[in-house]
Amino acid sequence: MLFDSFDLVSALATLAACLVSMALLLAVSQQLWQLRWTATRDKNCKLPMPKGSMGFPFIGETCHWLLQVFAKVFSHEALESYLPKIQQVIQESLRVWSSNPEPINVYRESQRLSFTMAVRVLLGFRVSEEEMRHLFSTFQDFVDNLFSLPIDLPFSGYRKGIRARDTLQKSIEKAIREKPLCSQGKDYSDALDVLMESAKENGTELTMQELKESTIELIFAAFATTASASTSLIMQLLRHPAVLERLREELRTRGLLQNGCLCPGELRLDTIVSLKYLDCVIKEVLRLYTPVSGAYRTAMQTFELDGVQIPKGWSVMYSIRDTHDTSAVFKDVDAFDPDRFSQERGEDKEGRFHYLPFGGGTRSCLGKQLATLFLRILAIELASTSRFELATREFPRVVTVPVVHPVDGLKVKFYGLDSNQNEIMAKTEELLGATV
User: Which end of the chain has the least Cβ crowding within 10 Å, N or C?
Assistant: First the structure.
C-alpha cells in the first residue's frame, strides 16, 4: 500500500512537472514572438501587434490598400521590369564565385546574393560594394540574434540583436533619404517606390520609422527562404547532372543557348515562363526541400479534423513538409523527379492542397512569383554560364531549422565558362562599384 502511494505521488509530481514545462514553453514561445516584434519595431511605433498571425507584422496587416500595393509590386509588369536587374545581380555573383580559387560556401553566398537582390532590385537602393558588405554583415547579426531569449544584458543575444537593428535602421534611413536623388533616369518602380506612392494616394503617408521597418521586413521576407531554395537548387543540379543537361537542351531548343553561350537580350518573362522543364525542376526542388516547414493560421470557424474538433479562434499550425511527404498524389516521394510535374503526369494537379511550398489560401506568400522568377533565372545562368563541382567527398546532411540548409553550407568549386567552354577567371575589380 505504501508502494502504491509512492507511485501515486510520483505520478502526480511527474504530471505537475509536465504541466509546468508546458507552461514555460508557451511563455517562452510568446516571449520569442514578442522579441520578433520588438527586434524590428521601434519603441515609439504605434502599429498594433497583429492577432493570430505569425507572418511579418507590417506586411501582414489586413489593410486593404496595402494588399493592393503588393499586387502592384509583384504584378507581371513589375516582374518584367525586375528581370534584367535580377539577371545582372546573379551574373555578378556567379562571376565572383568563379573568380574565387577556393570552394565557396553556397548557402552563405546565396544569402549574400538574395540580400543584394532585395536591396538593389526590390528596394532600388544604390549603395557601394563596401556599404553592401557592411549592410549584409549587420543584417546577419540581426538575423542570428533574432530569436534570442529576451534578456537585456550586456553581451546577450538580445542586446546584440537590438544593436544590429539600430545600426541597420540608420543605414537604411540614409539610403531612403538618398533614394530620390538617384531616381532620375530610372526605368522602373521598385517596391519601396510603389509603397510610398500608394500610401500618399490613400492619404496614409508613412513616417520614416514605418518606412525603415517595412524595408527591413521586405529584406527579411526575401532573404532566408530564397537563399535556402537557391542552395537546394544548386545541390540538386550537382546530384543529378542529367537534369542539368536537360535544362541546357531545353535552352538550346528554344534558341536561348548557342555555342555554349546565353544569347544576350533574349531573356524575357514570357520566354522564361514557357520553359516547361525548367518549371518542373523548380517545382520539384521546392517540393522536396521546402524552405519553411509550416505556418500558423487562425480557425475562422469551428471544424472537425480526423474526429478532433478545432474551435473557432484557435491558432493552428500546418506542416508544408509533412504534407509533401505524405500526400498520396506524389509517387516515390523521396526521389528527385522533375517529370512528376510534367504535363503528361501532373501529379500536383490531383488535389488542391497537396503541393503548397508557398502556403495556401488567401494568406499564401505574396512574393512567390518573384521568388520563382529568381530561381528560374539562377537555374538558367547556372546551366548556361557555369561549371561547378562538389568540393567534398559526400553531400552534406540537410537540416531544417531555421530553414532548410546543408550543415556545412555546401562547399562547391565554381568555374566560369566563355563561349568556347573554356574556363575563365573573372576580374573581381570589374564588379566594384557596380550598381543596378
Answer: N
Could you give the CA distance from residue 41 to residue 35 in angstroms, rounded to a whole number?
9
CB 383 within 8 A of CB 247: yes
Q: Is the sign of the CA dihedral 335, 347, 381, 222 positive or negative? A: negative
pLDDT confidence of residue 7: 56
Place of cell 550543415: 407
Residue 109 C-alpha cell reads as 553566398
- Please, where are the H alpha helices in 305-355? 320-326
Distances (CA, A) of 314 to 53, 82, 303, 318, 406: 11, 39, 11, 13, 34
Q: Using an 8 Å Cβ cutoff, are 50 and 56 in contact?
A: no
The values of phi and psi at residue 240, to 5°, are -130, 75
Could you tell me if 256 and 266 are in contact, meaning their C-beta atoms sit under 8 angstroms apart?
A: yes
> Is beta strand 257-258 parallel, antiparallel or unpaired with respect to 386-390?
unpaired
* d(C-alpha 52, C-alpha 414), whole Å: 45
Please answer whether residues 167 and 137 qualify as being in contact, where contact means their C-beta atoms are separated by less than 8 angstroms: no
Whether 400 contacts 321, CB under 8 Å = yes
pLDDT lower than 50: segments of the chain = 1-3, 20, 22-42, 45-62, 419-436
Q: Are the C-beta atoms of residues 341 and 279 closer than 8 Å to each other? A: yes
Read off the pLDDT of residues 328-352 as tens digits, 9 standing for 90 and up.
899 999 999 999 999 999 998 877 7
Distance CA 391, CA 155 (A): 36
8 A C-beta contact, residue 160 and residue 154: no
How much is the pLDDT for 385?
84
**Overall residue count recorded for the chain in this entry:** 436
Backbone phi and psi for residue 339, each to the nearest 5 degrees, phi listed first: -65, -15
Residue 420: predicted pLDDT: 39
> For the chain, how are helix, strand and coil distributed in percent, rounded to 5?
55, 10, 35
Buried-exposed string 395-424: b where 16+ CB fall within 10 A, e elsewhere: ebebeeeebbbbeebbbbbbebbeeeeeee
Sign of the alpha-carbon torsion through 46, 52, 54, 56: negative
Q: How far apart are CA 157 and CA 136, in angstroms?
A: 18
The single-letter DSSP state of residue 120 is: I
- Helix axis angle for 208-239 and 241-253, nearest 10°, is 110
- Give the predicted TM-score (pTM) of the model: 0.81
Cell triple for 22: 508546458
Amino acid at 331: K
Q: What is the pLDDT of residue 55?
A: 32
